[in-house]
């Protein structure tokens, strides 16, 4: 055990977490509870609005319960009652009240909730003991045997005992410590766009899907959220080109890309695209995974999408981030400040779980492409619970334990 470990208890260990979405605030909550000094830096000026409807499953439900926020998650869930498929003229082709495309089985204990609603709940749960630095980001960092010296974009310089990169699939922390993004990102051949719109269809806890033929676009999904007071729209574009070549940096250029891809679309898409131009929470990004040989280097460790993104196709990103944050905090507490021991245990406990989540994403994408190519009768499309590959995954999920 190092001299650092012998000399410091949790109350003397400072931890900088980069990213205030899901994994970052969850980790901050538990580290603060265990007595660590916690700072969270977030590039956005506040908690970021927008994002997908995400699923809190299995071990993440248990984390939420231990944090005392599970009831609030359920109160703010999408509470969808079912889904329907429509053709280009809006004619209903199929409906079900057994499952949804976004959240799975209706009678499942899982919670589907908007990303920004969950982030706000987790942030609030942390309380005033956690220091948040908004509208700032890590510009550079250097580490030695004793500390990590950080320079922020604002010009502020500070030193921390540990740094955690929870800053997403395009993690700045990962780039600074582990090298360029292209060394770790595996683009899966699609781009996913999402934005908020008024609920002009009057959807009542419902989602509607319009599949489009062809190889370039998926179609669109619209779902009511926040007790039907608004809706979220999701569109997909197929392209094997990596983000560096396909995806413009400018948000307006990204919107033009989506508008061009769906220029001939039917159903409600012309209206939804018109709403897109003024949507402040528009987001378009690669459907991708992050693969790394190790999640830590020295005093820096990665959490969630920054280290092992499984892609939205897995439906497991939120669950991985919350469960991993809880485990990482516990290992740091149990290791009495020996970060090398804690990081190794954290990775050892999560590697197989992460691999399973990344594999189910590939299965999900393969099934989706097979179904779109093989049938136009959406009533014949099997739900996840009817697929043996998914059944095996959910068996593994049920066997995963937060406490080792």
User: What is the C-alpha radius of gyration, as a whole number of Å?
Assistant: 21 Å
**Overall outline:** globular
Spatial strand sequence of the major β-sheet: 5-4-15-16-17-14-18
Derived from helix and strand composition plus strand pairing, the structural class reads alpha/beta
Largest sheet: 7 strands, mixed
Low-confidence parts: 1-5
Proportion of residues in helical segments:
25-40%
Number of strands: 20
**Total of DSSP H or I helical runs spanning 4+ residues:** 13
What percentage of amino acids are in beta strands? 25-35%
Average pLDDT reading: 91
Characteristic key phrases:
404 residues; alpha/beta; 7-stranded mixed sheet; 6-stranded mixed sheet; 13 helices; 20 strands; 36% helix; disordered N terminus
What does this structure look like?
The protein has helices at 3-7, 23-33, 58-67, 70-75, 115-126, 172-178, 243-246, 251-261, 269-276, 305-308, 317-334, 339-374, 388-399, and strands at residues 14-18, 37-42, 53-56, 82-86, 92-96, 99-100, 104-105, 111-114, 131-134, 138-143, 148-152, 157-160, 162-165, 185-197, 206-211, 217-225, 230-238, 283-290, 296-297, 300-302. It is an alpha/beta fold and 404 residues long. It has a 7-stranded mixed β-sheet with strand order 5-4-15-16-17-14-18, with helices on both faces. Helix 3 crosses helix 11 (317-334). 45% of the residues are buried. Mean pLDDT is 91; it is low at 1-5.
């Amino acid at each position: 055990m190092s001299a650092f470990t012998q000399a410091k208890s949790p109350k003397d260990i400072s931890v900088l977490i980069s990213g205030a979405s899901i994994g970052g605030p969850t980790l901050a909550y538990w580290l603060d509870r265990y007595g660590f000094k916690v700072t969270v830096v977030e590039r956005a000026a506040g908690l970021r609005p927008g994002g997908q409807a995400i699923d809190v499953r299995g071990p993440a439900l248990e984390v939420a319960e231990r944090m005392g926020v599970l009831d609030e998650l359920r109160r703010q869930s999408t509470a969808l009652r079912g889904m329907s498929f429509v053709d280009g003229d809006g004619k209903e082709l199929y409906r079900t009240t057994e499952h949804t495309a976004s959240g799975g089985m209706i009678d499942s204990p899982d919670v589907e909730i908007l990303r920004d609603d969950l982030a706000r709940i987790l942030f609030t749960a942390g309380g005033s003991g956690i220091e948040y630095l908004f509208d700032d980001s890590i510009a550079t960092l250097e580490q030695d045997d004793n500390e990590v010296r950080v320079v922020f974009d604002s010009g502020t310089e500070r030193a921390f005992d540990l740094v955690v990169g929870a800053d997403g699939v395009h993690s700045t922390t990962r780039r600074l410590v582990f090298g360029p993004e292209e060394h770790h990102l595996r683009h899966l051949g699609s781009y996913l766009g999402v934005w908020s719109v008024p609920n002009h269809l009057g959807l009542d806890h419902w989602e509607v899907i319009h599949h489009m033929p062809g190889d370039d676009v998926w179609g669109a999904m619209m779902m009511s959220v926040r007790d039907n007071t608004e809706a979220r729209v999701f569109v997909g574009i197929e392209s094997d080109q990596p983000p560096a070549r396909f995806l413009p940096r400018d948000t307006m250029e990204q919107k033009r890309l989506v508008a061009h891809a769906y220029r001939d679309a039917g159903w409600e898409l012309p209206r939804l695209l018109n709403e897109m131009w003024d949507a402040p929470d528009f987001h378009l990004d690669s459907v991708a995974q992050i693969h790394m040989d190790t999640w830590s280097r020295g005093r820096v460790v990665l959490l969630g999408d920054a280290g092992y993104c499984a892609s939205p196709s897995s439906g497991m990103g939120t669950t991985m981030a919350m469960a991993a944050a809880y485990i990482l905090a516990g290992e740091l507490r149990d290791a009495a400040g020996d970060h090398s021991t804690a990081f190794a245990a954290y990775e050892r406990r999560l590697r197989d779980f992460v691999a399973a989540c990344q594999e189910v994403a590939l299965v999900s994408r393969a099934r989706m492409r097979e179904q779109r190519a093989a049938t136009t009768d959406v009533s014949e499309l099997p739900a996840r619970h009817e697929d043996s590959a998914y059944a095996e995954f959910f068996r593994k999920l049920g066997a995963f334990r937060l406490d080792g």
